[in-house]
Design goal:
Number of helices of chain B: 14
Strand content of chain A: 35-45%
Organism (chain A): Paenisporosarcina macmurdoensis
Low-confidence stretches of chain B: none
Oligomer: heterodimer
CATH class of chain B: Mainly Alpha
Number of strands of chain B: 1
Largest sheet of chain B: none
Shape of chain B: globular
Pfam family, one (chain A): SDH_beta
Family (chain A): Belongs to the iron-sulfur dependent L-serine dehydratase family.
Cofactor (chain A): [4Fe-4S] cluster
Number of domains of chain B: 1
Distance between the termini of chain B: 43 Å
Mean pLDDT of chain A: 89
Number of strands of chain A: 11
Order of helices and strands of chain A: EHEHHHEEEEEEHEEHE
Mean pLDDT of chain B: 95
Helix content of chain A: 25-40%
Strand content of chain B: under 5%
InterPro entries (chain A): ACT-like_dom_sf, ACT_dom, ASB_dom_sf, Fe-S_L-Ser, Fe-S_L-Ser_bsu, Ser_deHydtase_bsu
Structural class of chain A: alpha+beta
């Protein structure tokens, strides 16, 4: 069941004109910013399918930039996000692509600043709901609807168990979890969707565990 | 995760056997799935209802989109209705004007509540605020109208699609009209089975509807399709309340919609490459708005 809540159907409250092309696009931008942990300095946005064909008409571009600036779907500042990006020191470029993707409304965001870069593929699946299908080359499935933790770690025995028991000690229940790695023994990624709210100190605890490189939260 | 219903058959059977409203089952499922309190869930839907009221109010005062393609029709319709000699009846034109009002606000980048999407956001509130005058519902009953709509929309979104890019306009305005038809029946005191008949009748008459927005904007023909979605919902609800049934069961109609969407060419799924978008006038409008380079790309 891709759609779990009635508010995926009756909602979101948003700035028009399109739930998939405006609200969904804003959410992709917002999740990207949250995963990056701060506002990026630059962004390259590749658009596929219907996104590529009609992004100007739907305000997909201003919505994605609005999201990168931290605006939610109902934030009226989305309308003027291009000007606000300039003020905030965010440069950006939109590149419509002709390649085929699994879902017609797909965006690939490459963002960064002086210290880091990140690449994310987001899909707007209708009604303002999104999925994140890839992060820095790792395939993943993230609805953006639950609190989720992303943990970059070394592919070493016990690292997953330690994170899981750390969450268990805090009485946090794991609803969904995926682990992927590029190569055996190399960098790996845990995606953990949880039912409870995650406090900052939990993230700090996880970050202190052995073999953990980076911990990020996606807020609910 | 445990869901109370996954299709319309389960929804109707459960409502009938437990003697509950469909809206009640949607509320109970939401509590179960999200672990939120009833109070919290009702409050959020109340907020969404307020957003819908404000959008209609704004649209009836008259708004225009930046492209200039849409705006002002809600005012024309409302004034025409007030003169009192409409052919299709005041309630129907009232619903149509309020559906149009919502989508004109959406096209003008105003605040709306997606139901189930932004492009189809006019149908559910448009019909609600029109039948409101006839049925005099309480605030809670109006909120329940949205949960009934949501229950059917939930089934469509999970078993088919509510995205124009994936399934054409039948998935957006088609779903919205069918959701509204079911909700009107519940508010009018119809049975859960009658709700599902109304849904099926409405959806059957939206099958095959393509998504072909001029210049890629959610304006032409989207705004007027919301008008017809609202009219379709009211007529379908009346048919179901009269005792008319659908020969094809609701879930099979939803499945047919999904399969039609899959076999629809991508030129007719929100890419602005076919249908009305590809007419000489559609292309000329796109060129006027975005310039010749954009149109060449399309």
């Amino acid at each position: 069941m891709k759609f779990k809540s009635v508010f995926d159907i009756i909602g979101p409250v948003m700035i028009g004109p399109s739930s998939s092309h405006t609200a969904g696009a804003a959410r992709i931008g917002l999740v990207t910013r949250e995963l990056f942990g701060r506002q990026p300095k630059w962004a390259k946005v590749y658009l596929y399918g219907s996104f590529a064909e009609t992004y100007k008409g739907h305000g997909t571009d201003i919505a994605i930039i609005g999201g990168l600036l931290g605006f939610d779907t109902f934030d009226e500042r989305i309308k003027t996000s291009f000007d606000l990006a300039k003020e905030a020191g965010l440069t950006f470029e939109f590149i419509p692509e002709t390649g085929h993707t699994e879902h017609p409304n797909t965006a690939r965001l490459v963002i960064g600043d002086e210290s880091a870069e990140m690449e994310l593929i987001g899909v707007s699946i209708g009604g303002g709901k999104i999925e994140i299908s890839e992060l820095n080359g790792f395939p993943l499935r993230l609805s953006g609807n639950h609190s989720a933790i992303l943990v970059v770690h070394d592919d070493k025995p016990g690292s997953i168990a330690k994170v899981a028991s750390c969450l268990a000690e805090q009485n946090i229940n794991i609803g969904h979890m995926e682990v992927s790695r590029k190569e055996q023994g190399q960098m790996a990624l845990m995606v953990i969707e949880v039912d409870e709210h995650i406090e900052e100190h939990v993230l700090q605890q996880i970050a202190l565990l052995p073999h953990i490189t980076q911990v990020t939260k996606i807020s609910d | 995760m445990k869901f109370l219903f996954r299709n319309v058959k389960e929804l109707v059977e459960l409502a009938t056997s437990e003697n509950k409203l469909i809206s009640e089952l949607m509320i109970e499922q939401e509590m179960l799935v999200t672990r939120r309190s009833r109070e919290d869930i009702m409050k959020q839907m109340d907020t969404n209802l307020t957003v819908m009221e404000q959008a209609v109010e704004k649209g009836l005062k008259g708004v225009h989109s930046t492209s200039g393609l849409t705006g002002g029709d809600a005012v024309l319709l409302h004034n025409y209705m007030k003169k009192g000699n409409t052919l299709s009846g005041a309630l129907l034109i009232d619903a149509v004007s309020k559906a149009v009002a919502t989508n004109e606000v959406n096209a003008a980048m105003g605040t709306i509540c997606a139901t189930p999407t932004a492009g189809s956001a006019g149908v559910v509130p448009g019909t609600l605020f029109a039948v409101q005058n006839q049925l005099n519902p309480t605030r809670e009953e109006m909120i329940r109208y949205l949960f009934t709509s949501g229950a059917f929309g939930f089934v469509v979104a999970n078993n088919a699609s509510i995205s124009g890019a994936a399934g054409g306009c039948q998935a957006e305005v088609g779903s919205a009209a069918a959701m509204a038809a079911a909700a009107i029946v519940e508010m009018s005191g119809g049975t859960p089975q009658q709700c599902s008949e109304a849904f099926a009748i409405s959806m059957k008459n939206m099958l095959g509807l393509v998504c072909d927005p001029v210049a890629g904007l959610v304006e032409v023909p989207c705004v007027k399709r919301n008008a017809m979605g609202a009219a379709n919902a009211l007529v379908s609800a009346d048919m179901a309340l009269a005792g008319v049934t659908s020969r094809i069961p609701c879930d099979e109609v939803i499945d047919a919609m999904y399969k039609i969407g899959q076999s629809m060419p991508s030129a007719l799924k929100e890419t602005a490459q076919g249908g009305l978008a590809a007419t000489p006038t559609g292309r000329a409008l796109a060129e006027r708005i975005f310039g010749a380079d954009f149109v060449k790309g399309v």
